[in-house]
Amino acid sequence: MKRGHILSLISCMLLFSFFASAQENTNTSKFKQLSEILPTPNVYRTASGAPGHEYYQQKADYVINVQLDEKNHVITGDETITYTNNSPDVLNYLWIQLDQNVRAKNSASQLTSSGSMDDNMSFWSLKRMHDKMNFDGGFKLELITDVNGNDLPFTVNETMMRIEPPKPLKKGQSFSFKIKYSYNINDRMKIGGRSGYEYFEDEGNSIYTIAQFFPRMAVYNEVEGWQNKQFLGRGEFTLPFGDYKVNITVPADHIVSATGELKNASSVLTKTQIKRWEKSKKNYKEPVIIVTQEEAAENEKEKSESLKTWRFEAKNVRDFGWASSRKFIWDAMAVDIAGKRVMAYSYYPKEGNPLWEQYSTRAVAQTLKTYSKYTIDYIYPQATSVHAKSIGMEYPMICFNFGRPEKDGTYSKRTKYGMIGVIIHEVGHNFFPMIINSDERQWTWMDEGLNTFVQYLTEQEFERNYPSRRGPAQNIVDYMKGDKSGIVPIMTNSESILQFGNNAYGKPATALNILRETIMGRELFDYAFKTYSERWAFKHPTPADFFRTMEDASAVDLDWFWRGWFYTTDHVDNSLDQVNWFKVNTGNPEIENPIAKAQQEKNNTFIGDTRNQSLIPETLDESDPASIDFYTTYDPFLTSILDKEDYLNNIENLGEAELEILNADKNYYELQFSNLGGLVMPVILEFEYVDGTNEVVKIPAELWKSNNEQVSKVFVFDKELARVTLDPFLETADVDRNNNYWPARVEPTRFQLFKDRNRRQENPMQRDRRAKEKSSSMDYKQDE
Amino acid sequence: MQHSLIVIIWSLFVSFHDFHVTHTTIYYNADKEALEITVNAAIEDIERALEDQTAKKISIGTNAETESVDQLIEAYFRQRLTLAPNNHLTHYQWVGKEVTQDLHNLYIYFEVLDCNQNGEIESLLIENSIFTDILPDQSNIVLVEFGDKSHNLTFSRGYKRQNVPILN
Predict the structure, then answer these.
(1) Where are the alpha helices (DSSP H) in A507-542?
(2) Please, which residues bridge with residue A177 across strands?
(3) Which of A330, A729, A759, B25 is the most exposed place for a label (fewest CB within 10 A)?
(4) Is the dihedral of CA A726, A730, A731, A737 positive or negative?
């Protein structure tokens, strides 16, 4: 090889080894600070997680006239949108969301959703497929003009529409324009959807739960630019705040519920209804019925041909929803939130009773109170729960919730708690994201995870032992230990999430619960969580703002926690590998020699030696005494008077501190732990002593700082240990508890526990029956 | 040329009951030489699957539950979840069921006794199509635990058969 070549070869090798070593020297610690991943703080969002001094947000005001055609299930509407640009940027175009277009034939959402056939598909499933394909959904746009009626140039891209104002919009300027449109309302039972109608065949009546019913502005900000990701059906909505005036024209015998406040009650309600409504505004104890079940049942029987217009107004909301039906019963109650009155309303058909009359408005009220306690005081004038089959969906001040008893009025425990749970959850959404207005299209977890967490807190205040679905750490174990190819980190865009419910709802809610109960403690957590809510109420927060605020307001370093729980799919599996027991060697031969001797005897012996003990009847020294000398019978563990003297001399030379340790006679335990799952967590230990007492010690996760995979720690006790349990109170979502015990212990599986419990052949109902029979036969005997 | 049917499905996303996943654990109990099977599934989905098959109203875990429900559940799962240790199709027996604490799901227990009669289990072929007949976005997770080895599998509508090597 020529010299030049050799030189370049060598320099190549050097270069390569330089890079190789550079890679090995990066920081892979689980405690690495998160700032490398989070966006750089700036004038819009500070490093402490608060809005910056130049934070801005856009505003979109709406005046909407909408009409419901009951016979054909069509909505027609016209709206005037006034968009105000508060950003420092000049906007040449504006984006508008056309969510109904997701139901248009051959829409992108239909095409990008993967599907398959099953060999044994049910008829129902096939029919649904056909109905979806055949439905003529989507906005039919008639006119898009400025306020003077001049056409505006526009382009529709599936569920997004771009329009251009005649002049680019500068900071502080507003632009108004009009849109006239119509669309077919979808039958929710047939093809699904967050809004639509439910048709009651035997009556010919429907319940309309209407939302996304108007073209509406997309969000423009310094994080995303225009948030114009297509609406594919899963990631929900990102919307600016604004003021709404909405006029809803429906058949004259419908009752309408909507976001905001009703402004023309005397035109649409009877005198009796108004009187009852006024009464409800003074009742803070129980719901007052404004439209009774008898009245609603009567109302259902005929269909009015005339129309009425209901006028609603709402300030500082990000969206608008409404419901209309001649089947509605309506009840109301006043709720005191920090001295201000908020109205709680429920609208439901007779099919919802008796469950809805008893629980709906009460659940709304409880939700407002608990959420206000943990976040911010609810300042909208009302919160409404509308009964709708098979759905839970939220809009500002109004939500649609399932929970229908059987036709005979009975209901199961599951139906009851399911209904209360969904009402709490959907009303809770008023806080996340209606008020604390995060980007749902991008980060589902910011509203669903946070909301599910506060829902859990609310359920616990509703009833003791409320059967909450999500909250306790153990409930998320199955999801987290699952096949990693089937899960993604929480910080994943909504559209690509696998196992959506667990990822966006369960895992973040559980993570927050763990933060509250185990990592930060309730006091620090509650303060920080409230700080976040107060900072971002009526604003648009991002994940970094949340992560930063929680640390900033509590002085608890959480970067390792956010990184592990939100950015990875690692799970928790910490094991207690070994417990080594040490005592100080007293130096006193009378004490130590017997111990050493016993130790030696306990040690495993070579099999040959054991056999020889019995198989060799007599050794030479046992038969011939002349072969015995000093060393034959020397026992190194016997204590002589000289040994004792030596010991006492040593003691005299010890200092006071050393003597103290010697005389304390403590037990030293070295515990070794491994992190097998990837997530570092606090180490919580329950020590049970030989004398029957116990003690719990909690060590922060920083224990794992020097070595993320293995760590040991020494504990000093007066007493002797009998047992150690790692994570005794099920706080860390540890997926394998079999390696949490010393001495080793294997927990029985759920299967084995079930079998043990059911050795008797009865089920609880049968047993109860037997018990009743027995006690009634006993009563009989007593009567005798 | 006949095109295969391109199925277009817009998964219904409901804000609340939102996702469809069942979780099955297959645990080999070495002492008893038995396979212990635990299935965790949403009661709503079981009821709907059974109603679809029987055209009757089904109630599980309530006072209205009839005595035939256990048999119906067993028959449904026998169809949709099959196990073949060493490629030998094996029936499992009903052990029982119980409602979860949050009232939303059901644990269903099955077992295969004396499953080591023919020597060691070298592989386990699993077919899992639970609820894929009624729900297009159904996922079914199976955790197989043999000794200290465990395998985590995900099944879905187009992907219902997997073979797990037990002895490697």
Answers:
(1) 507-514, 522-536
(2) A81, A146
(3) A759
(4) positive
ipTM: 0.81
DSSP, collapsed to helix, strand or coil, labels residue A60 as: strand
* Closest in B11, B132, B152 to A233, CB measured: B11
Cβ proximity of A754 and B99 under 8 Å? no
User: Is A393 an 8 Å CB contact of chain B?
Assistant: yes
Q: Name residue A728's amino acid.
A: P
> For the whole model, what pTM was predicted?
0.84
| DSSP reduced 3-state for A570 | coil
- Tens digits of residue pLDDT in A434-465: 999 999 988 989 999 999 999 999 998 888 88
- Cβ atoms of A750 and B35 within 8 Å: the answer is no
Q: For residue A165, is pLDDT > 80?
A: yes
Sequence letter at residue A687: F
Tell me the β-bridge partners of A246.
Answer: A64, A312
**Measuring CA to CA, which residue among A188, A189, A346, A200 is closest to residue A212?**
A188
Contacts of A755 in chain B (CB under 8 A): 95-96, 109
Query: Which DSSP letter does residue B1 get?
Result: -
Looking at residue A485, what DSSP letter applies? G
CA dihedral (A357, A363, A510, A237) positive or negative: positive
Find the closest chain B residue to A761 by CA distance. Answer: B96
A759: pLDDT confidence band, cut at 50, 70 and 90?
A: low
Q: How far is CA A557 from CA A34, A548, A562, in A?
A: 10, 10, 10
Per-residue burial over B132-151, b if 16 or more Cβ lie within 10 Å, else e, is bbbbbbbbbbbbbbbeeeeb
Chain B residues touching residue A417 (CB < 8 angstroms):
102-103
DSSP state of A759: S
Distance CA A359, CA A363 (A): 6
Determine the Cα–Cα distance for residues A638 and B25; give it in Å rounded to an integer: 59
